[in-house]
Amino acid sequence: MSGSEADRRIPNQRAHTRSRMSIDEKISKTLNDLDAISPEAIGELFGEVTSALESERKALIAAGAGDGRERSQKVKDLRDRWLARKGGLVSLIDENWLKKAPKELKPAVGRAFNQLRQVATCVDTESLLQEVRVQADVPVRLVAHAGVEFTAEVIRGQDLTLPGYRQPMGSIHPVTQVMREIEDIFLGLGFSIESGPEIESVYYNFDALNIPESHPARDDWDTLYVNSETVLRTHTSPVQIRAMEKHGAPLYILCPGKAYRHDNPDSTHATMFHQVEGLAVDRDISFADLKGTLDYFARKFFGDKIKTNFVPSFFPFTEPSGELSISCVFCGGEGCRVCKESGWIEVMGCGMVHPEVLRHGGIDPERYSGWAFGLGVERFAMMKYDINDIQLFHQGDVRFLEQF
Ligand SMILES: [Zn+2]
User: pLDDT tens for residues 32-87?
Assistant: First the structure.
């Protein structure tokens, strides 16, 4: 064996030892220590460094992170390990390999080092953050691409027993619910539903209802005028005239709908509100029919324990007129703040249809008589659901509406 062959065995043994060192250990030594004294050996060393960098980066991407904070930490750790100015592997290679390289190898080491520095930008924070997937993000992606990206890879690591996504469901507005409830009770008694225009003529809104222009009662309604002959109807009563004209007698109708008044909004007044009016016209209709029907209705709506009471009142379109009170739904008639300690709450106006009104509807008051009533739907809903502010019905606040 020649001397030169023996010499060559030593570097081979060193190379063998070198292959068992970790990449960190290698970087802590000089090229001379590692016996990397040829351009090939240097190329091989830098190749090892590059593949170590690549596999650490891939391992992090494959593992992902549980949440954003864990991801930031993991990305920072890998970035610092390689790119920290002090103690980062790239900077140690600069110190231990490049700066301490023998003069004749410096150009080769310098070139390899520059390439490594470029490759190493793949672990800088910005580029890596985009690649590491946070598991909490995945369900969002599933929703965004429902049916498209639902692959094993996407759902890996997800808890498929978690509850699904709930679609919020709408509900029927409490005013509509109460209006339908009232309608149902009267439909059961053989009444039918009538509707009419909300922009109404002064004739139908006032004159035909026995409220001529000179009549002081016209001031009782804070009317919103469109022009001198047209108003936003202040009550649903014009529908009664229109229905009498259209169908004649006998007539049993219910007129639910919107009404408008120039009221200042407060907890019991709104510019727009809902009414239900009822009208019964037939032969021999008496006040007893009115009392019996409204008593039945009040019990059906508020419950059997309710007592009713009729108090005389005045309306231009009925004669005689009355107001229906029910025993207080809040205190059961004991007396409370809502019923002003009286035990009674007034819930609607009613009376026998004025002969003049029947005549305006084309019905002969000598042959027919009738009764009518009118109630505020919001007010009924407030009593039924114990709501203290009418404005809540019209504000569209989901937190309020979703309770119904
Ligand atoms: Zn009370």
Answer: 898 888 888 999 999 999 999 999 998 888 888 888 888 889 999 999 999 999 99
Instruction: Record the tokens describing residue 199, joined without a space.
Output: 């922009």
CA of 309 to the centre of ligand 1 (A): 15
pTM for the model stands at 0.59
Please give the CATH topology (third level) of the domain spanning 174-401.
BirA Bifunctional Protein; domain 2 (3.30.930)
For residue 306, the CA-to-ligand 1 centroid distance in Å is 12
Token pair 């507005």: residue: 173
Report CA(293)–ligand 1 centroid distance (Å). 24
Alpha carbon distance 338, 332 (integer Å):
11
Output the CA 15–ligand 1 centroid distance in Å: 99
Q: Are 66 and 133 in contact (CB under 8 A)?
A: no
Q: Could you state, in order of their start, the residue ranges of all structural domains in the chain?
A: 7-139, 174-401
Q: How far is the CA of 388 from the centre of ligand 1 (A)?
A: 14
User: Ligand 1 center to residue 386 CA distance, Å?
Assistant: 12
Contact residues for 198 (Cβ-Cβ < 8 A; gap 6+): 232, 233, 257, 258, 260
The SS3 assignment for 281 reads strand
Q: Are strands 251-260 and 192-193 parallel, antiparallel or unpaired?
A: parallel
Going by C-beta distance under 8 Å and a sequence separation of 6 or more, which residues neighbour residue 256? 179, 182, 183, 193, 195, 236, 274, 275, 276, 277, 377
Tell me the pLDDT tens digit for each residue of 313-372: 999 999 999 999 999 988 888 999 888 999 999 999 999 999 999 999 999 999 999 999
Neighbours of 227 (CB within 10 A): 7
Query: If DSSP codes are grouped into helix, strand and coil, which group holds residue 119?
Result: helix
